[in-house]
Each structure stands twice: as structure tokens, then as C-alpha cells.
Write a structure and sequence with these properties.
Layout lengths: L4 E2 L2 H23 L4 E7 L3 H16 L3 E7 L5 H13 L5 E4 L9 H7 L11 H9 L7 H14 L6 E5 L6 H10 L3 E5 L6 H6 L3 E4 L17 E4 L3 E3 L7 E3 L4 H5 L4 E2 L6 H20 L15
The chain binds guanine.
């Protein structure tokens, strides 16, 4: 029996993308600026190919310019750095995204550091990481930003709530914790070495699961009424051989206890791409000395 509210990330993302599209058209008409997103994919990883295709398509649907670059798996690092430098200097490109993970011959940190911070719409450059940590005005990584919007949709003001972030990656866990701290939550980051994981989770008013392990979080770990955000996208085998996507939380047992939870698919995933478009729009405004559209994030849940 399911009693949790299922947070509809797909619908929230559709609203946000529609508003971004309207703002892009306004920017084009009033200021002759078309936000441009460049996406670089190295190699042929099937999941990454799907993500990159979706990102580029949704950028076009939001009336942005989309530039796609596909480099072979064995590409020398220098070629990738040269492409980034060219895009750094290209005035038609306001946002640069290099899809991760990268192949082993490429130093991921060097690549991230090579992106101009104001074009780093992933928010991975140390300048943007530092801005988030110190309360500055940088770019916030897309997945945590999408999670935050869904949390605010459900809970409004988050101040004083106990939040547990499961996972400590640079892409999700660490920036998610920094964002929740900025919202005045009491934040715990739990990870594979955490000793009392179940007990820590059971104290959480907000639980964000971002570990990449299928259905790792059972309902017994959830505080009754808590809000659970499931960042995991894991493909599991099924009897019919087609496979299926599941999150990091065990949906059936968690929805029996939680107050609200996000589904997989249709929860965090669509919000991540919508936030990428939002970051690109804001980057374009900043690069042209224009104010970023106000109140746009709230359209996701109004
Ligand atoms: N790979 C998985 N998630 C992401 C993301 O948010 N940005 C980039 N660039 N690569 C990813």
C-alpha cells in the first residue's frame, strides 16, 4: 500500500522548460541573444549517448542553439582541450558541457579546469564549487539544483530540517549537501564507510539518495513522513530480458513510510536537464551583461 505523495518531476520539468523557452524567445527578440549550449561526448557509452541526445534536443526545443561534438574514445587529451579552448572563445556558445565519465587517457580535472567558469553550466569548475561553498553567485550543478527545486515544491522553507545525503560524489552528493546547508538544513553526508547508516537515515526529514546502487534504501530506513529524493538511475535485469530502470531506494517499501518521494524514471532525471537549460540561459544573460530572469525556478512548482 502506497501512501506517499509521488513528486512529479516530469511535470515540474515541463513547466520549467516551457518558461525557459519563453525567456529565451524574449532574449532573442529584445536583445538579439540566442543562448548556445555546446555538448561534448567522448566515446560511445550508450547511456551517455542517450543523455547527450536528450540534452541537445531539449535545448533546441527551448529555442536555444545547440552544438554537439562527438569525439572517439581514444581521442588525445590535447584535442579535447583545444576544442574547449575554441568553445571558450566562441561568442555563440554560452554553456559548455563535457559529458562524464571520460576515458582513462583524459584527466577529468584538467578538462573541467579548462572550461571558462562563466561557461561551466555544470558548475564543476573550482571557481563555481568555491562560490557554492562560500555563498557566492556561481553556477550550481544541475542535478542537486533540480533536487532542491523538488524539495521546495514539497516542503517550502527547508530551514532547520534534518537532511541526510547518501553519497559524496562531486556531481551530486557534495554540492547537494552544500545547497541544503545554504537552505539552513542540518546536513549529514553518509557514504560507504558510514557506520550507522540506517540510524542516520532514520533521523532524516529529507533523504537524498545518490549512491548508484539499485534499491539500496529500504522502507525501514525512512522516518515516517520524510521526503525522499531518489537520484539513482540503475538498469536491472528482468525476466523478459528487457531490463528496467530502478532508483537507489526501494520504491514500494519507501512509499509505504515516506511523506513524499520521487519516482524513477520521471523524478529527478527530467529536472536535471531542465536545470541545465536554466543554467545556460542564466550564463547567456550574464555574458551579455543582462539581468537573469527572476523567479524562474518557482515556475517548476507554481
Ligand atoms: N554524467 C552524469 N551526470 C552528469 C552531469 O550532470 N554532467 C556531466 N557533464 N556529466 C554527467
Amino acid at each position: 500500500m502506497s501512501k506517499a505523495e509521488i513528486i512529479d518531476g516530469k511535470r515540474a520539468a515541463e513547466r520549467l522548460r516551457a518558461e525557459i523557452g519563453r525567456q529565451v524567445v524574449r532574449l532573442r527578440e529584445q536583445h538579439l541573444v540566442t543562448p548556445g549550449l555546446a555538448v561534448i561526448l567522448v566515446g560511445e557509452d550508450p547511456a551517455s549517448q542517450v543523455y547527450v541526445r536528450n540534452k541537445a534536443r531539449q535545448a533546441r526545443e527551448a529555442a536555444m542553439a545547440s552544438f554537439e561534438y562527438r569525439l572517439p574514445h581514444g581521442v588525445p587529451q590535447e584535442n579535447l582541450l583545444e576544442l574547449i579552448e575554441r568553445l571558450n572563445q566562441d561568442p555563440a556558445v554560452h554553456g559548455i558541457l563535457v559529458q562524464l565519465p571520460l576515458p582513462p587517457q583524459v584527466d577529468t580535472d584538467r578538462v573541467i579546469n579548462a572550461i571558462r567558469p562563466d561557461k561551466d553550466i555544470d558548475g564543476f569548475h573550482p571557481v563555481n564549487v568555491g562560490a557554492l561553498a562560500t555563498g557566492g553567485d556561481g553556477t550550481v550543478p544541475c542535478t542537486p539544483l533540480g533536487c532542491l527545486m523538488l524539495l521546495k515544491h514539497r516542503l517550502g522553507d527547508l530551514a532547520g530540517l534534518r537532511a541526510v545525503v547518501l553519497g559524496r560524489s562531486n556531481i551530486v552528493g557534495k554540492p547537494m549537501a552544500a545547497l541544503l546547508l545554504r537552505e539552513s538544513c542540518t546536513v549529514t553526508i553518509a557514504h560507504s564507510r558510514t557506520r550507522e547508516l540506517a540510524e542516520d537515515c532514520r533521523r532524516a526529514d529529507i533523504l537524498v539518495a545518490a549512491v548508484g546502487r539499485p534499491r539500496m534504501v529500504p522502507g525501514e530506513w525512512i522516518k515516517p513522513g520524510a521526503t525522499v529524493i531518489d537520484v539513482g538511475i540503475n538498469r536491472i535485469e528482468t525476466a523478459d530480458g528487457k531490463g528496467r530502470l530502478v532508483g537507489d531506494v526501494d520504491f514500494d517499501s519507501v512509499t509505504a513510510v515516506a511523506g513524499a518521494t520521487t519516482p524513477v524514471p520521471g523524478g529527478v532525471g527530467p529536472m536535471t536537464i531542465a536545470c541545465l537549460l536554466l543554467n545556460t540561459l542564466v550564463a547567456a544573460c550574464r555574458q551579455h551583461g543582462l539581468p537573469a530572469p527572476e523567479g524562474i525556478m518557482e515556475t517548476a512548482w507554481e
